[in-house]
Design goal:
about 30% helix; HIT family, subunit A; alpha+beta; 5 strands; 4 helices; 5-stranded antiparallel sheet
Length: about 140
């Protein structure tokens, strides 16, 4: 499937910069640091192909995508040491297959509940984002 010109993950630039900062590209995915950091270390792993459903991937593509997600999850666990990592794949309106990897911390925001899509509470200075990105990249 071709890129969708209305899709943040396909087009990047201003569309994705509203909510994320690109960390890197892996075999099948693009990885973004979520700007809103109520959950320290939250990232998005988006498939490189513009597909809406995981069922649109071949078995090989699906397995490779989950390998990317696993690689990012390991890096998040190493760098941020969450008590639990939540995984969310929604996309009702932005129909591009992606997963939110949301570190959860006991005594932290929304522990024991579902994470908010965008709580719009904690934003960091640019240098802090870059430090987080560097730590994640070093562990991928």
């Amino acid at each position: 499937m071709e890129n969708d010109t209305n899709c943040a993950y396909c087009m990047e630039g201003e569309l994705v910069e509203k909510f994320g900062i690109k960390i890197c590209e892996l075999k099948t995915s693009k990885v973004y640091l979520f700007k809103e950091q109520s959950h320290e270390g939250r990232v998005i792993v988006a498939h490189k192909k513009h597909v809406s459903e995981i069922t649109e991937l071949t078995e090989e593509e699906r397995n490779a995508f989950f390998a990317d997600i696993n690689q990012v999850a390991k890096a998040i666990h190493t760098v941020f040491k969450p008590d639990k990592l939540n995984y969310g794949a929604y996309g009702d309106t932005g129909q591009h297959l992606h997963f939110h990897l949301v570190p959860k911390y006991e005594n932290g925001a929304e522990w024991g509940g579902t994470f908010g899509m965008n709580p719009d509470e904690i934003y960091l200075p640019e240098d802090m984002y870059q430090k987080m990105i560097n730590k994640i990249k070093a562990n991928l």
